[in-house]
Amino acid sequence: MVNPAPSGSVRSRTGRTVPLLLSGALVGALISVASAGPATAANLSSTFDAVAPGSPAPGWTTSGDVTVQDVTGTVDRSLRLRDVSTTANTTAAATFGTTTSTVVAGFRLRAAQSTATVGVHLDGSGGHSVTVAMSPTGRLYTYDGATQIDLGTYVANRWYDIRLVARPGIATADLHIDGERRAAGLRFRTSTTDLASLQAGVSVADTGTAYIDDVRTTAEASPTAWPHLGTIAPRTAAQVGTSQLLVGAETLDRDYTNYQAYAPYLGRLGATGVRLQGGWAKTEKTKGVYDWTWLDRIVDDATARGVKPWLQLSYGNGIYTGGGGSGLGGQIPTSTEALAAWDAWVTAMVKRYENRVTEWEIWNEPNLAGIPATTYADFFARTAARVRAEQPASVIYGPGEAGIDVPYTNDFLVRLSGQGKSHLLDGISYHPYNPNPDDVWTYQQVDKIRALITQYAPGAVLRQGENGAPSAPNSFGALGDLDWTELSQTKWFLRRLTHDLGQGISTSAFSMSDLHYPSKINSKGLLQTNSDKSIRYAKPSYYAVQTLASVIDSTVTALPAYPFTTDSATTLTVQGFANRDTGRQIVGVWNGTTTPGDSTTRTPVRLTLPDGNFTDPVYVDVRTGAVFDIPAADWTVSGSTHTFRNVPVYDSPVLIADRSAIRL
């Protein structure tokens, strides 16, 4: 069938690198998980939080002193391996079912000392296939085949967030630590065509204590028989440089998240902008006295990591009568004293950060708080004038509205234009929350906002300023009543971000970490948290957004209304991009008809791109980062018309990309 390309939202629904140093340490008995079963394994999940301290871990086979314990200085329960012998094994193993599929294993690892060998294996029929370990000389290491690879130092009594992606079909693995890919294309240590278990332990020759927690495995068959070329190389924000992809770091003004806890992950994500809320009430707790310490630390750290702050001027301050609300849904300042204090704080804020911050946003979701659009427009103009007076080159956004509220935007722009103050507005930001991120209505409203901008504020741009999906059911906030999982969250993020970027819209992923509201957890974070807001681990959505950030940056431009035809029985979403210098293309494709689900089953489709530009096309699954060659038998070209056959498509974005446009 042929799918139309309506305006605004186009719909129709081996090189190997191991960039590490060699190490001289050898690993002994290590932590591992084992299994026996069908060709595709069951998921393994062990958090130990519901197990009584001192008890064995259900589902784990152990030797030596291995029990669930509360870890001193932390707030969560973990599996402890205590080795007091130099002649006996101390190990713990769990099974997930023998599989030939790709296995993704995540876990946290902690050593109580830096003088013992502690390790974790993925095991198959041939024995230890993939290993990550801590040496008795304070070094982290892994293996590339039989060669030991040094990963740098580790410290005792610190959790390490570790992720292994192991591919039995080609006997290679990738290793990530704390959100950073540390090795790619590692050859298996032993010859095997399957994986079956994860095992953890302390070396027989050493004494010491180790902890493992948040053990998670998934197994997923390759999406295609096409040759596997590698995985997308993640890039830090500093390496990316500039892009239209941002990440949300909201609610730090109310201490619902902990910036210092997730700071190491921020730059590694690859998003080049971060949305921060200025926190008048947190900065001015005594009238006329500003304590910028908390915000200085955040702005300076983000900037040092190559992430540009987008600073929001909100909320109110209760130390002033009529000072407005200091949280979501709060009112703007109204009294003469409070407005004067607001003006002073805004001026002081811009003066303090004008050499580090150029983008500002005035208030958050005024329509949600019931603030009339005309009242907000007057408040916006008042505030923007002070920002612009202090920083003439400032870029100012408003209204940061909940949803896509076309009538509210219209009234705001009409009021602003009628007062001759449209020049103070550089962009409209909005927060669309829909179970299906490809919902046709959403982008119809976006087109209406574009038309209003053209009419009343020519030159202003659009920004999707806050949007995300939970990773668990019964989550606080928007979309929290639906039955989300980490997999469906990942797909949702990728669909929203890729769709926005394909329409030339600057877009933000909300949020860096889970948010701890007073009554409940908002699980929209890319990072899973403990009850004290420290980070447990990077969710699959973190790695998926990291991949997208590494591919769609300022070196490519969006191709809105990108034309295509397909034989797919399901309507597809297609978004096109082209390299600014070469014109070579990247085309995102997915089934966008429904809310993302938990199936990873792909359907092969034919896709014809009449305006294509490819010389060496490859297939990329953005969610996993895996890259495959598209054989000559499965694509043809006639002039600019490129036809691709047997393209595996599902409800998460995949890319057909010219090989020159991606980095392995």
UniProtKB/TrEMBL annotation:
Transmembrane segments: none annotated. Residues 1-41 form the signal peptide. It holds the Pfam family Glyco_hydro_39. The keyword Signal applies. The keyword Signal applies. Residues 285-436 form the Glycosyl hydrolases family 39 N-terminal catalytic domain. InterPro entries: GH (IPR017853), GH39_cat (IPR049166), Glycosyl_Hydrolase_39 (IPR051923). Keywords: Glycosidase, Hydrolase, Signal. Belongs to the glycosyl hydrolase 39 family. This is Glycosyl hydrolases family 39 N-terminal catalytic domain-containing protein.
